[in-house]
Amino acid sequence: MNFIHPRKMGIMGGTFDPIHYGHLLIAQSAAEEFDLDQVLFLPTGKSPHKAQIFVTEPKLRCEMVRIAISRNPDFKLSVWEAENREINYTYLTLRKFHEQYENTHFYFIMGEDSLDDFPNWKNPCEICRLSTVLVAVRNDRGDGIKDKIKRMANTYAADMHMLHAPNFTISSREIRERIRLGKSVRYMIPEEVETFIRQHYLYMEQD
Questions:
Q1: Which of 22, 90, 97, 168 has the fewest CB atoms below 10 angstroms from its CB?
Q2: Strands (E), 50-103
């Protein structure tokens, strides 16, 4: 009897408003460090964490992601949450993906800032049951984050690991602000994404 090893799929969720090189570097780092077969980019739709914050419509954010990852065959876009009209909870999305993708082990990628808020997420125990959790941290971080991950892993009986990512401190919010002020965002986002932003007059107004 032949045993087929599970496919290893990373899940890179986020608002991606807009997607930038920091997101892409984290996804690539995850693929290399944990030998992932594919990384699924999952733009949010209705998020329980950003319900009161204005976010660019999902269709436009998805298209920016599609443009940014188009040249990497190991990256794939999922519009599942973006097209879902209900509030998206990560544990429900993971349940859906387990139904959709057979013989697949999921690696849920989050930032260090999300780890701090993880106890407030809906059903964190189920998230940890359904996936290995990768916490993206900058390469220059000390041992404090290791202890934090260890404590969180013990609390939720999680398979949780540090993901080492190159230093990239620019945020989507900073990029939006630079565009609003007419400043350059060269080397922060792919040129094709910047062209799309200009064509659709995104981020020209104050957040």
A1: 168
A2: 75-77
